[in-house]
Write a structure and sequence with these properties.
Length: 210
């Protein structure tokens, strides 16, 4: 593996001011996701279970894991998150889950969070960790918008991707599930990841309440 120059991205909570204007980063990341979605998905990839083990399936399949994460989070000392509101955001996304169009499965990265992005001068320099690369619902790759961006940059990200309301709500639900799952699992062992996913969850709840 070769060395990649850059600085790791930082998370931005709903009350934080980004160190730099992140509208350009939003455009850069959106372009990476669009490029990934544009790659053809061969038939053998569509049917390969090794490409469907991680994320990107229906939110309905993640309902019990999400609720388990919420139960675990209720016992975390010092966690200042409205978990009942989180369940409401999740329910809203399930209400619009619906049936996706046949053939809408695309390639996705699956873990587009601050720790997997390198920046240079505020621009995206590299996307790391493709271990979770899979085929499925590409809205899973929207989740980083609630960890990386303030509200204006997040809207710029959405506009560049051209996602509709149902897609956006699924992406927000993914951010909630990924964030709460990490809090439940890494609360004691990885304080840096805990900090970043906490910013993600709080941004989701602030966005839903706006």
């Amino acid at each position: 593996m070769r060395w990649l120059k850059g600085e790791r991205a930082t998370a931005v909570g709903p009350d934080d001011v980004p160190p730099l204007d992140r509208s350009q980063l939003a455009a850069d990341l959106a372009d990476v996701i669009l490029a990934l979605r544009a790659v053809d998905v061969p038939d053998e990839a569509v049917s390969d279970p090794a490409l469907r083990w991680y994320r990107g399936r229906s939110l309905v399949e993640f309902d019990e894991p999400l609720r388990r994460s919420v139960r675990q989070c209720r016992s975390l000392e010092g966690l200042d998150v409205d978990l009942d509101a989180a369940l409401g955001v999740w329910a809203d996304a399930l209400d619009v889950q619906g049936a996706r169009e046949a053939g809408s499965d695309r390639w996705y990265h699956g873990d587009v969070v601050a720790e997997n992005l390198l920046l240079s001068g505020g621009r995206l320099a590299a996307v790391l960790d493709f271990d979770g690369l899979g085929v499925g619902d590409p809205t899973v790759d929207l989740h980083g918008a609630w960890e990386l961006f303030d509200a204006p940059a997040r809207e710029a990200f959405r506009a560049r991707l051209g996602v509709d309301e149902a897609e956006w709500l699924r992406g927000r639900a993914w951010a909630l599930a990924i964030g709460l799952g990490a809090l439940a699992y890494y609360w004691e062992s990885m304080p840096g990841r805990r900090r970043d996913r906490l910013a993600m969850v709080r941004s989701v709840l602030a966005d839903a309440a706006a």
